[in-house]
Design goal:
Layout lengths: L3 H29 L3 H27 L10 H17 L3 H32 L3 H31 L4
Helix pairs in contact: 1-2, 1-3, 1-4, 2-5, 3-4, 4-5
Length: 162
């Protein structure tokens, strides 16, 4: 890897893998939580994620590359943390819902950092259309993070303290 374009392509493949992985995993996560509002929000975000993948396909097309993912250790780690918590801790429903919102916030922050970096690289490379596409997705990730933070606060008040 020697150039900003090399890094751009690497980061693009990384987030492409992450978004595709999330699109698959969110369905299961939605079925694991007990709060209907949270489950609906996760399902809704799955639909948004699928649209984000389609926009990433557009970016690959813009730069003349085939859409291809590259394993994203960051997203794998965040998803594994959630799965391990469910399996190992066997939390009560309210606790799982609260944990799920926190896990979702972590994922959104990870994605926000990735898209912010891609915007800067796209700008540096003169790929203004790609930067606009990434900005649209970044805005969606910010909205999702805010929604999850509000749910996290509300659900946190419902979980027994001791």
């Amino acid at each position: 890897m020697e150039t900003a374009r090399d890094l751009f392509l690497h980061e693009l493949k990384d987030i492409y893998y992450a978004e595709n992985k999330l699109a698959k995993e969110l369905k299961q996560m939605a079925s694991q939580v007990s709060n209907d509002q949270l489950s609906s929000a996760i399902e809704e975000h799955r639909g948004v994620t699928e649209k984000q993948v389609q926009r990433l396909d557009q970016v690959f097309d813009l730069i003349g590359e085939q859409p291809q993912g590259e394993k994203c250790d960051g997203i794998e780690g965040l998803l594994e943390e959630f799965k391990s918590f469910v399996k190992d801790e066997k939390p009560e429903d309210q606790v799982l819902d609260l944990f799920a919102t926190g896990a979702g916030i972590k994922v959104e922050l990870y994605e926000m950092a990735a898209y912010g970096s891609l915007i800067r690289l796209a700008d540096q490379l003169g790929l203004s259309e790609a930067a606009e596409i990434f900005q649209t997705t970044l805005n969606e990730e910010e909205d999702a993070a805010r929604e999850l933070e509000q749910m996290n606060e509300k659900l946190g008040q419902e979980v027994p303290v001791a």
